[in-house]
Design brief:
Length: 297
């Protein structure tokens, strides 16, 4: 696998790594882990008092209720922009502090300058979906007082994920679908937009990455529509924590031991607008991989 020239992380992985690395620090004498513990207790008490059956995302700490799962694409990486409608309330008082209808925003701007918990919440649904999120203060406004929201406030956000705006991604998906139809191939459709075909179902055992991100695989990679491989390997070592393109980060955890798949990656899930530094994979190249999952190390 050719190493990417820049960091590839899924949205969920980046949110998780930021929290675990202490990037959401508090300035009021309460450390991040203590404030997080307090927030989770407050959320649990609120949910229990109000009879709300919510799920918890262990990677970010938000609790959420999906009211409509949606049917479109899922937010897996930082797309060009997203269109959202949402209403925000302070959990402790119920006071509304924001209400937005069909706002188109740069995804990274929402992540860097807004309420990060919104990004985490919408990864739980697809386009057209709706979710209510209970957001710890570190993924909200943190120690800042903003728009009348007190410092260290847990937030409740009702969010409609209206559209993932990424022209290249949607164009690539159409190219893949048209070409596979011509080949009489009917692939499975992943919420990310990745298409894949399971060639061998392998065993019933799912990989356990809880103790190690390292795994081994046989693989061959081709530019979509070409027959010559640009890269291949047998029993090759990889790590989910380092150097993998997003398409592999999405697909590998879903495979069984011994399973083999052919995956078709729109260019944003491969090497994107840059291609590889050596020029072997050009910018905006759609990729095709045959992968056999061997083992977790």
């Amino acid at each position: 696998m050719r190493k990417p020239g820049y960091l590839f992380l899924t949205v969920t992985a980046l949110l998780s790594s930021l929290f675990l690395s202490g990037c959401l620090d508090s300035d009021d004498g309460i450390d991040t882990s203590e404030q997080f513990r307090i927030d989770l207790e407050l959320i649990d008490q609120y949910l229990a008092t109000n009879g709300i059956n919510a799920q918890r995302d262990e990677s970010s700490g938000i609790s959420y209720v999906v009211t409509n799962p949606g049917t479109g694409l899922a937010l897996v990486f930082f797309a060009d922009s997203i269109t959202l409608s949402y209403e925000g309330r302070v959990m402790s008082t119920g006071a509304q502090f924001t209400s937005v209808t069909s706002k188109k925003s740069n995804t990274l701007a929402v992540f860097n300058n807004g309420i990060r918990g919104i990004i985490s919440a919408i990864t739980k649904v697809r386009e057209g979906g709706s979710v209510t999120a209970y957001i710890p203060s570190g993924l909200g406004y943190g120690t800042r007082e903003v728009d009348g929201v007190p410092a260290n406030s847990v937030l409740i956000m009702d969010i409609d994920f209206e559209e993932l705006n990424h022209i290249r991604l949607k164009q690539d998906i159409q190219v893949i679908d048209n070409a596979l139809a011509e080949r009489n191939i009917t692939p499975a459709e992943h919420p990310s937009g990745i298409r894949y075909v399971i060639n061998d179902i392998g065993t019933s055992d799912s990989p356990n990455f809880s103790t190690s991100p390292n795994f081994r695989a046989n693989y061959e990679g081709r530019i979509f529509g070409e027959t010559v491989a640009f890269d291949d390997g047998t029993n090759s070592p990889f790590s989910l924590a380092e150097g993998l393109i997003i398409g592999w980060q999405v697909m590998i955890p879903e495979m069984k031991i011994g399973e083999s798949r052919t995956i078709y990656l729109p260019s944003p899930y491969g090497y994107g607008v840059n291609g590889t530094q050596d020029g072997v994979i050009p910018p905006n190249a759609i990729l095709e991989f045959d992968i056999e999952f061997i083992s977790v190390n």
